[in-house]
From TrEMBL:
<dbReference type="GO" id="GO:0004499">
    <property type="term" value="F:N,N-dimethylaniline monooxygenase activity"/>
</dbReference>
<keyword id="KW-0274">FAD</keyword>
<dbReference type="Pfam" id="PF00743">
    <property type="entry name" value="FMO-like"/>
</dbReference>
<dbReference type="GO" id="GO:0050660">
    <property type="term" value="F:flavin adenine dinucleotide binding"/>
</dbReference>
<comment type="similarity">
    <text>Belongs to the FMO family.</text>
</comment>
<keyword id="KW-0503">Monooxygenase</keyword>
<dbReference type="InterPro" id="IPR020946">
    <property type="entry name" value="Flavin_mOase-like"/>
</dbReference>
<keyword id="KW-0285">Flavoprotein</keyword>
<dbReference type="InterPro" id="IPR036188">
    <property type="entry name" value="FAD/NAD-bd_sf"/>
</dbReference>
<comment type="function">
    <text>Catalyzes the conversion of methylthioalkyl glucosinolates of any chain length into methylsulfinylalkyl glucosinolates.</text>
</comment>
<dbReference type="InterPro" id="IPR050346">
    <property type="entry name" value="FMO-like"/>
</dbReference>
<protein>
    <recommendedName>
        <fullName>Flavin-containing monooxygenase</fullName>
        <ecNumber>1.-.-.-</ecNumber>
    </recommendedName>
</protein>
<keyword id="KW-0521">NADP</keyword>
<dbReference type="GO" id="GO:0050661">
    <property type="term" value="F:NADP binding"/>
</dbReference>
<dbReference type="InterPro" id="IPR000960">
    <property type="entry name" value="Flavin_mOase"/>
</dbReference>
<keyword id="KW-0560">Oxidoreductase</keyword>
Length: 344
């Protein structure tokens, strides 16, 4: 997929798109077709291209290694000693699931100190599961099946599961270098959505992380639709580029690592709300829903095993009242839909 007329003024860029039909097994069906589009929205997700660390010995390690993307259920690891590399969302979820099935569960964190402070999540997990052992980073995978950690300690492992996240990958996009994609960043992107030199004919929906995904991406999609239909205008290219530079500087000043370039709340905790109100026509989220979202998030951070089991009684009165109203409304809508079906 490439601009048809490289160097043309952005509003006149047209996109030459070559596509092939792929069957569910990945095989190609038929011959490629070529079409020309005025605009392209890239929404290919960013949770499918595993990001693997580079660890001495991993190419020749004789035992099982996989990325969390291939993990489904704990059963295949029964009675094994499993090393989970990384303690983000996937690492903690998988380590918890493996407890009680695997013989030993080891977690290798980039930094033991960061993993245990300030969030109580890891400490709680370790306190609840004596079988989980937390280690510093892996130094080397040794040919005898043992793993050497950075502090010199060793552990034998049957399997290593890399819970080391995902890379951005847009192999089909050719912008002659105007947009670059690396494992942790797509850019330059004005507000994580429009590349200034090619806006608005090229846009990206779904690049941001650490947001309330469905609602946020809906807002992003609506913004793109508003711009492409001419109902909203983007600032001039120079202004968008300046905003991108300012955003990068703010992230750098706040010590945000490169792999969190598109983490929306990295600098301002409420930016995910402001983004939606700034750019989309979605109504403001009711206060009790914001409170519910924030409370659920905090609960999950504090106790990832039990947060789903909390009942309404543990929420504030405003959340409980909001839930009561929402259930009445959802119930009435359900009844109305049933009636419509019966009438037909
Ligand atoms: C383990 C895990 C748990 C998660 N849990 C939550 C959660 O609880 N709540 C939450 O809000 N979010 C969660 N997320 C994040 C959520 O999955 C994503 O935010 C969401 O799926 C993003 O939607 P998307 O449409 O942008 O991308 P995706 O859902 O990834 O969809 C992208 C689509 O594009 C297709 N595609 C890719 N390349 C091409 C191509 N070249 N041509 C044609 N099609 C292509 C893919 O096949 C896919 O169908 C989780 C993610 C993971 C990995």
């Amino acid at each position: 997929m490439a601009p048809r007329e490289a160097g043309a003024a952005c509003s006149y860029v047209k996109w030459q798109v070559r596509s092939v039909h792929v069957d569910p097994d990945g095989g190609q069906e038929g011959s490629p077709t070529e079409e020309v589009f005025d605009a392209v929205v890239v929404a290919n997700g960013h949770y499918s291209q595993p990001r693997l660390p580079s660890i001495d010995g991993m190419e020749v390690w004789p035992r099982r290694q996989l990325h969390s993307h291939s993990y489904r259920v704990p059963d295949p690891f029964r009675d094994e000693a499993v090393l989970v590399v990384g303690c983000g969302e996937s690492g903690l979820d998988i380590a918890t699931e493996l407890c009680g099935v695997a013989r030993e569960v080891h977690i290798a964190a980039k930094s033991v100190e960061d993993a245990t402070t300030p969030s109580p999540m890891m400490s709680k997990l370790l306190a609840n599961h004596a079988g989980i052992r937390l280690h510093p980073p892996v130094d080397r995978l040794r040919e005898d099946g043992t793993v050497a950690f950075a502090d010199g300690s060793l552990a034998a492992a049957d399997t290593v599961i890399y819970c080391t996240g995902y890379s951005y990958s847009i192999p089909f996009l050719d912008t002659a270098g105007l947009v670059t994609v690396d494992s942790s960043r797509v850019g330059p992107l004005y507000e994580h959505t429009f590349p200034p030199p090619l806006a608005p004919s090229l846009s990206f929906v779904g690049v941001p992380m650490q947001i309330f995904a469905p609602w946020f991406f809906q807002a992003q999609a609506r913004w793109v639709a508003l711009v492409l239909s001419g109902r909203e205008a983007l600032p001039p290219e120079e202004e968008m580029l300046r905003a991108v530079r300012e955003d990068s500087s703010a992230r750098e000043a706040a010590g945000v690592p490169a792999y969190r370039t598109h983490a929306i709340p990295a600098v301002d905790r409420y930016e995910y709300l402001e983004f939606v109100y700034r750019h989309s026509d979605l109504p403001r989220m009711e206060e009790w829903k914001v409170e519910l979202f924030e409370t659920s998030f905090t609960n999950a951070m504090e106790d990832r095993e039990a947060f789903r089991d909390r009942d309404d009684g543990e929420y504030s009165e405003s959340i409980r009242e909001g839930l009561r109203r929402w259930r009445r409304l959802a119930g009435a809508q359900y009844e109305a839909a049933l009636c419509r079906c019966c009438v037909r």
